[in-house]
Amino acid sequence: GHQTQVRCFAHILNLVYMALCQQFEPLLRKKPKPKDPTPLSLAVDAPDVDEWEDDPEEDELDEVEAETLQAAETLLQKKNTELELLWAQSARVPLGDIPVEQELLGCSAMQKIIKIGQRCVRKGPLQKKLAYYCGLKNIPVLKMVKRVPTRWNTMYNVVDRALKLRKALDAITKLPEYNTGCPTQRLKHFFLDDADWAILAALLPILKILYDATNRISTSQYPMLHEVIPMMDILNRTLEESFNDETLPLVIRRGVQRALVVLDKYYSKVDYSLMWKTAMCALLSLLKRFL
């Protein structure tokens, strides 16, 4: 029953992570295929298209990622009514409405590094060009990382690597050789300005908290119940500090708020579980005996 049920903490962390990252995901929609596509010869000098238009060469691989993201979104919204009730009853200070331009900025920054990561990983010459500019800009020669939706917390690696490669990424996205031909192939759509980089830099420490917690649990041979509650306490306290930090962009604080609602949902169930209480009581008993 509910009193003896123990939820996998790693899965809880993944749900918290997905709730945070949903704030930076565009709406998933299928684009209708044109009946009479424009020949490549005519598309060479075509005007720039919307920067979120998909690259036809990447559609097949992106389908899997889109399906995975859709599944994650469905999972989080499965008990949407319950989450909304928790949100309404939350004692946290409401953020109010976020300006549309800031919502778009957060999504734009995240999607740009996701796309440039996909491009670099799939195209060897581009990865080599990135390495060349790393040397030119006197930064460590590193490869760009691709987001893998089926692997937990990969966005920390993507954002962390992008920030380390900032100078090189800025350089290659401006190169004329990567900004001719088919509009969807042009890298200038993925150029990140100072506002984009500021969003990523502010988001990185929050992603790292979840990344470190997941690694701690994943690498433990025998994760113990008494280890989980202190970790949830630390995670909850750290996320609350980020949520209350008025120096952070509103779009990030909204993402943290989403994460906190999911964490609260599962954290509150600890109070009704005999397994959690027994584990903590046993730990306290041992501490009193040996300390």
TrEMBL record:
Against InterPro entries, the record matches this protein to: RNaseH-like_sf, Vacuolar_transposase_reg
Where do the record's region annotations for Disordered lie?
32-58
Q: Where is the signal peptide?
A: 1-21
Q: What top-level branch of life does the organism fall under? A: Eukaryota
Q: Which UniProt keywords apply?
A: Signal
Give the Acidic residues compositional bias ranges: 47-58
- Xref: PANTHER family: DNA REPLICATION-RELATED ELEMENT FACTOR, ISOFORM A (PTHR46169)
This chain belongs to the protein called hAT-like transposase RNase-H fold domain-containing protein
Q: What organism is this sequence from?
A: Gymnopus androsaceus JB14
